[in-house]
Fold this sequence. Notes:
Layout: H1 5-8, H2 13-41, H3 72-78, H4 91-102, H5 106-132, H6 141-160, H7 171-174, H8 179-188, H9 191-200, H10 206-209, H11 217-230, H12 236-239, H13 248-257, H14 263-274, H15 278-283, H16 285-307, H17 311-319, H18 321-324, H19 330-333, H20 349-359, H21 362-373, H22 394-408, H23 415-420, H24 423-431, H25 440-453, H26 456-464, H27 467-472, H28 480-493, H29 495-502, H30 506-522, H31 525-538, H32 542-550, H33 553-562, H34 582-618, H35 625-632, H36 643-655, H37 664-672, H38 674-684, H39 693-707, H40 712-718, E1 720-722, E2 728-730, H41 731-739, H42 747-761, H43 781-804, H44 807-815, H45 824-838, H46 842-849, H47 852-855, H48 858-864, H49 872-890, H50 904-915, H51 922-935, H52 939-949, H53 973-986, H54 991-998, H55 1004-1007, H56 1009-1020, H57 1023-1034, H58 1049-1055, H59 1065-1071, H60 1078-1091, H61 1118-1121, H62 1126-1134, H63 1140-1147, E3 1151-1158, E4 1167-1173, E5 1176-1181, E6 1185-1190, E7 1196-1201, E8 1209-1212, E9 1218-1223, E10 1229-1235, E11 1240-1247, E12 1251-1254, E13 1261-1266, E14 1269-1274, E15 1280-1284, E16 1298-1299, E17 1305-1308, ...
Antiparallel strand pairs: 1-2, 3-30, 4-5, 5-6, 6-7, 8-9, 9-10, 10-11, 12-13, 13-14, 14-15, 16-17, 17-18, 18-19, 20-21, 21-22, 22-23, 24-25, 25-26, 26-27, 28-29, 29-30
Helix pairs in contact: 2-5, 4-5, 5-6, 5-8, 6-8, 6-11, 11-14, 13-14, 14-22, 16-22, 16-24, 21-22, 22-25, 25-28, 26-29, 28-31, 30-31, 30-32, 31-34, 33-34, 34-35, 34-39, 38-39, 38-41, 39-42, 40-43, 41-42, 41-44, 42-45, 44-45, 45-49, 51-52, 54-60, 63-68
Amino acid sequence: MSEGSGNENAAGAEATAEAEATAEAEATAEAALMAEAVAVAYQSDDEVEVEAGSVEDQEVVGDQEEEPAEGEAEQQDEGEAEDADVDGDAMSVENAENESDSGGNPEETAAADRRQATKKELTQIIDKWEQQQTQNGYDPVPTLRSLAEIFEREKDVYRRKDPDPLDSRHPYRADPSCQYGLLLKLLFRKDTFMSKLLNDYLRENYFSRQNVSRSSLELNILACRLILEIMPGMETSAVFQTAEGDGTINRIYSWAEDSIEPLQSYATGLLAEAMEVSDIAINFRDQNIRLVPKMIKRLHMLLAISKSATPDVNNSMHNQSADNSAAGMLSWVACASNASAPQSPQHNGSGLAASSSQHGDASNMSILFENSRDAFPVSRYYKRMYIPLHPPTADTSQMLIMRFLTSLGEYQEFLAMAFENNVMQLIFGYLENLDRRDTCLAYEVLKYLASLLCHKKFALEFISHGGLELLLKVPRPSLATTGVSIAIYYLAYCEDAMERICSMQRPLISELVRYALWILGRCHDSSKCHATMFFSLSFQFKVILEEFDAQDGLRKLYNVISVLKILDPSHNDSDNDSDINEDVECASRQMVRHVCVALKRYMEAHFFYKYNSFLCQHNAASSSPSSTHYFNQNPTVAAKLTFDQLHDQIRTLQEHTSIRAHWQPVDQLMKLGGITMLLRIIAFSYDWVNSGRSETVRSALDVLSVCCIIPRVYVVLCERLLMLDKTTTSGFCSVLGAAAGEITSDAEVIKSALAVLCHCVCSPIIRKDSGTSLIKFGNSSRKNKANHKYAEELIERVWESVCSNNGIVVLLSLMQTKGPITDADCIRGMACRALAGLARSDRVRQIVSKLPLFAGGQLQTLMRDPILQEKRAEHVIFQKYALELLERVSGKTKPLNNPLDPSLSNMHKANVIAQTRIQYNKQQLYQLIFEHLESNGLSQTAQMLQREVGLPLQTPTTRSFHQSPFDYKTLPSGSSSLSRNRLRSRMQDVNAAIMGTELNRSFGEDSSPAGGASSSNVGDGVSIPNFGCLNTTQTPIKIRRTDRSSVSRSIQKQLMEPGGSSAGLPDDGQLHPKRITLNTIVTEYLTNQHSLCNNPVTTCPQFDLYEPHKCPDPKPSRLLSSNYNLTSRHARTQAGFNTTRFDRRYVHTHFSPWRSIRSADYEDLEFTCCDLVGKYIIVGTQQGDGRVFNMNDGVEQFFSNCHNFSVDAIKANRAGDLVITSSFWRTPTSILWSIADDEFKLKLRLPDVTYCEFSQTVQDRLLGTQNECATLFDINTGSKVASFTPTIPNLYTKNRATLCRTDELILSDGVLWDVRSGKEIHKFDKFNQCISGVFHPNCLEIIANTEVWDLRTFHLLQTVPVLDQRNCTFSPMHVIYGASLGADRDHDMETTTYDTSFNVLDAYDYSSIATIDVKRNINDLSVSANGSLIAVVEDYSGYESKQETYVKIYAVGVKKSERSEEEDDEEVPDSDEDGSDTGSENTFSLGPNFMGFPLLRNLNGSDNEGDGDLDEDDDDGDLLDTDDEMDDDDGSDNGDDEGDFEDVFEFFDRSSSDD
């Protein structure tokens, strides 16, 4: 068939012959080079086993199945110069690149010329086809033959590079430098040709439809051959999508069932590809049922022919390999002398004759064997890399049949056929005595075997017939090793099969583990993945686990991912980015996923056996023989534990593990750097986008959870990790990020991360060190003290690391989570447990006690009901740890019996009541007893009592008219029960403490006979059953009423107490009930009255039994009423009291609009920010301008363009001659301007600085903010003075570095710095994502969003909820303005929410003074130097109106007039003449002594400022005019309105001296 190719392709004969001659010469040279290289590699079979383990760490993760020397000649000739072939769109560009790449090397030049000639030849053939295919009677056979030969030749080159046989990607994606993939891309662009190839050329009547009397057989054969050659680059589902409807697949079935060779084999190969599509396999189920037995029988016949070859042929092949050896016959000739394989019916002569006569195609198969003899001339060192499709050989036919059977092997309906047709014997026949030089057919057989091993029955049969021994005899390295990796994976998937394997002899198991570990280190990525999954499924079996450890398997498993570039930060340089493409990165991520899962199974299996050993030791002294027998057994398979069971056992093991413990799996993992690698995987997974990311992170976290049994792991979690961007982060930072849902929102990942945190922060400090301890360590007191100290230091380091990485805010947010709804209750419980463990730290406990979640009672709301009613068990756990957390925060360790209302205030109240000493008048008690006896007819007993105690003589009805709310005798029985129930329900938090304290007190009647008699009488009284009935209705526990224990209310409460510390407490209470006396009953009755008080006190006078008790309520402070009462304040001032604070609060409740500047008066202008300087206001605009306005008349003085984008912040110094502007948009930039001659002059440009401010004292420096970094610049020189970059940043989104009032401290990104030394002082905990914080003017506190921190102790002083997400602006009048500014919001207007009001707070105690609603969005707020004026940039954007901005100036302390309020409610009129003042007729101009003090004088200067410019009223800079000029503007004042400000004038005049 190949001899006539030149004659039929007449048009391109010369080019084709020239290319073929060049290819043959190169192939001969390459074969010689390869033979020499492979000869050295295969001199000994044992060389591979002797290689040191250290070499595995340095092996390249790719082509590792063959020896390094193999294929080097081909890669040098064909791989180095193919980089220019990646882009096949422009042929001219490729020509230029090939010329430049080839350089002066003759070999590279020849290879580049050959590739270029091949592409040119392909293009010419396709172009010729396009021109001639429309002609009538066109013959496409020569074209198809030429194309098939081209692709076979290039595919041969591609296969010699030993690609991953299981890699189903397009060859161009697998190897962008290969010519084969590039030619496939060029061919697939020809849609017309591909349509003809897949539809018309597969028709049996193609020529007859063209009115040509010719058979289409040759055309069909070439079409099938070409489709099979180009199939690796085609989408199978797309190829056979149309073929299913037009009958093409049915035609292929007929060819595969009965046709001549090679059409029958090629058709079988096409069916194998089609059956990969499950829909096609299901639709053609009947045809497959008919065809599968025939294919199996055909394999039997082909194998029988191979086995029937005489030994003489084998000897002649080895002696005269150059003459008559064929690479296609090595697979069956080499096995001819084998006699130990399972015999099949075709192995004898009669069977062969019967088979030949049955099929009637012996002559058809003879063609295959003839081609096998003439296929390849090889030497004895030749190693076949693949089975060619042309010329078709016996191996080709068997390979295609195997592929067809493999695609159907997983279907259950074909399993019976496999047993009926002796597939097991067939597979054994193929795998016996394999030649390592030719395992291509064995690879296909192993793939078919793997598809059958997914059936449990076949897997067990395979193991029982010695299949495992046969698998382990497959030579390595070879192509068949990849098939072995798939087979052992499917074996491990069947647990019953693995149990039988584990019961075999130990040497066989050892060899299995050795084989899998060899695959793990030296094969393709697909084989490594299968070997890794094999181990992950088989680690549960103890014998596999032991062999894995004995052969250093953990190191080899770790090395699989240690060499991956995606986990190595050093490979992230710019010059190495091209080495990792998208496919390699995706494959590496999948490898990481499989290894993490395997490590998880490895650690969990070790943990199971370790925990079982611990239980055996712990229960060795048990008296129960059944428990002893249970714990002494030696399990061989690790049980599968649930999430809760696993982590409960980890906590148990932590308690019994020494602080300096060692455990071999964890020790080896730490020695290899596995803990750090797992943390790096978690950190790097932020940027991964793949389907298995959640499983990867969860598995890594689960490994860390088990490793937390050994405390030394905590040190690794606290250390810093190097990230891909060269930054460092903490291990706990990655774990907290996973817990917060930043990596993925998968609930399982969140729970695994919380489990790691719980095991670390809740780790016991005092550990049990008994004889059952896991660790063999000395018990001397000196070592115990050292261990205890080390444990405290270690756990404190863990707490500090978690807090430094904002662990508190993460746990708080998880405690309030509501989703996912099915796991929210479990997540809440775990987060609460972690926070309770973290609260053992004094620092954390102090911070948590001030948060609204605890101080405001929010936690009690969460404790009431679960998120999902079906998850009540998880909610009970949450309640348990919430109570534990409340006890630690409040310092109260007494038991709480009402878990629904354990707020801090109620706990304090219960503690006060419990400490109160109850005293009462005994004579009143005797009088009540006397009346009770009289009412029951016991007159003599009553008179005796009256005489003995000396009761006054009185009528017994004197007390009957007293109706007290606590006198139950006069109320109905139902009301009595309800009232008593109400009293007792209010007292549930203190009953245990009352009974514990009162029983220890000695009263006379407790030990006297009278007291005993009284107690006995009371026990028989009527009121006692009411106590019992009440308690029985409150608890589901049934209590007997036959003895004193029936009225023991405290004992019943112990029974219903949740979460008791010891399981034996209820039994002890029942065995030793507390004695109930009349004194305890009266005391409890009075304590119930005391608990009803709103403000109980500890020291109380004697209780009156006849009158209800009530503690006095605190008197309201008269100072509060003085806040708004002018008369009261004036009177107190005359009396000598300081009322400045109340005056300030009164003044700052009134704000009157005084001047407005509208952006509508200027073309295309929008105001964004402003700053008040003297009588001028500097305004920044959206257009990047800086504009200066006069506040008196609203007239613009001058302006200048400062930025290309919007000005987001503008600030002037106190002198007014320097202005700093900042722009966040696009390229962040801050610019310092000097103002002179009514002009902005550039002084200093600070690129990449998002925000900048002046220093506070001398104002000769600038503090700039660059993300989390703060930089100090010198204004005069423009140089950088210092830079402050935190070690652990908080990463606030709106970080603004700021200086304290004395310029000694810097606060940036929540980190406090010392300016002089440049050292980091303290990192404040992060409780919000945006605002980093500012210094209070008193230099003693820091306000970060709602939290107020003490600079002296770094304690959280309080929280101010009204400041949530609001920027603080301080006034010199000791007032804080809080506003949510538009300049700090996102530029995405669709997601932006605005606030139209600002809050006014007292700077002393952060109490709210007023909330002012301006009815427009606030962009910025500025306060004048004396605090008398504030400027607000307001943004009004109506639904149908044009967006308009205002700069409105408010006068502080001035009430709005009626006209001003009306105009403020309405829209601004369009007919304003000046357009700059709203209601300016009834306002005033800004004079030099406005409100009684100079404009620039700082009223707060006497306290803290100490600035020297208080008296410099006339020399304040270029923006300030003289007093004469300011007096000229006073003519616009309205004299009637000035009378409204007389009281304000007096306040501001006085405040400058009082403050």
